[in-house]
Amino acid sequence: MTANEDLFTPIHKALRSMIYDVGGRLQSVDFVDKAAANAVLEDLQHEFSNAVSATCALCLLHAHAGSEESHVFPSMQSIDPALIRMLIDDHHEITRRLGALTKMADELSTVDAPPRRIELGARLNREANEFFAFYLAHMNKEEVTIVPAMKEHFTDDQMRTMQAKIMGAMPPERLSGYLRWMLPSLTLAELTGMMAGVRHGAPPEFLKFVAGIGEANVDPARWTAVRERVGF
Ligand SMILES: [Fe+2]
């Protein structure tokens, strides 16, 4: 029997929302205005050495690939090694492009002359667009390859155990960074299902943690509907 759990699509919705948001701000920001530009650049300056506290958009995009490699790909390695090889090759390309993007953002933050800032800003925007396009296509690819393959080979319980391990291994700050984007990105039915899972399958402190993030980030009418349906 085919399973229903999907370890990828909900978190990918969060990452897509993050990309749409930072992409929107990046393409319209006035690079001459240092304070405004720095607020966007902070989201693009990935700190590779600071994996614990980093919640910048690129940090979360990078950390996500790491979670897949540590907690999900090994379970599929012997089932479809060629697929896992292809996805890991994509991850290496993501890391390479991230490095280039971070370098550009670092360079721009040290420049004062307005014409040069505008020039570097336009270049950074083009590079970021390339990166986002690659990342989006990579997620699309995972959703039509590894997602159906895992539904064939694992039970819902097995996938829920993997999910719990992924979240358990994450610093709370990073987990809240993802949830802040994920909760408002899900459909009403998905959000209701997720919160019901948390309510019935996780300790009360965890429900409180997730509910606090939902309260602050999900549209109030929608959040009220979820609370009523799930009963918390
Ligand atoms: Fe991936």
- Helices, by number, come to 12
Mean pLDDT: 91
**N-to-C terminal Cα separation, in Å?**
32 Å
Largest sheet: none
Beta-strand content: under 5%
Assembly category: single chain
Are any ligands bound, and if so which?
A: fe (ii) ion
Query: What is the β-strand count?
Result: 0
The ordered H/E elements are HHHHHHHHHHHH
- Unreliable stretches (pLDDT < 50, length at least 5) are 49-53
Quick one: overall form?
globular
**Share of helix, binned:** over 70%
Q: What structural class do the secondary elements suggest?
A: mainly alpha
Specify Rg, calculated over alpha carbons.
19 Å
Q: How would you characterize the overall build of this protein?
A:
By secondary structure, the protein is mostly helical. Helices cover 80% and strands 0% of the residues. It contains twelve helices and no strands. The chain has helices at residues 9-28, 34-44, 57-71, 73-77, 81-109, 114-144, 146-153, 156-168, 172-185, 188-201, 204-217, 220-230. Helix 2 packs antiparallel against helix 5 and helix 3 packs across helix 8. It is globular, with a radius of gyration of 19 Å. 28% of the residues are buried. The model is unreliable at 49-53 (pLDDT under 50).
Question: Which helices and strands appear, and what pairs or packs with what?
Answer:
Elements: H1 9-28, H2 34-44, H3 57-71, H4 73-77, H5 81-109, H6 114-144, H7 146-153, H8 156-168, H9 172-185, H10 188-201, H11 204-217, H12 220-230
Helix pairs in contact: 1-6, 1-9, 2-5, 3-5, 3-8, 5-6, 9-11, 10-12
Fe (ii) ion binds next to helix 3, helix 5 and helix 6.
